Predict the structure.
Amino acid sequence: MKQSCVYILASRPRGALYVGVTTNLHRRLWEHRTGAVDGFTRKYNVYRLVWFELHPTAISAIQREKAIKKWRRAWKVEMIESHNPEWRDLSGEF
């Protein structure tokens, strides 16, 4: 069974943010970092994993992603800083 993940990437501390969902975070981070997929993250060099949350189902992860995308930027920054105040790249922690 694959575990779904909601994640936030940043270009730098308090920089551009990207909210996504995936069932394979390692692969998805590789895609963002290598620019394998054209789009926002490649255009703005958004590849630092600053927050993530595991979910038991894809449905719950997608619902959470959609909710976070509707949030104000300040709320996203507050959530990131409550778990990761230095905006460290968390890609080695899962």
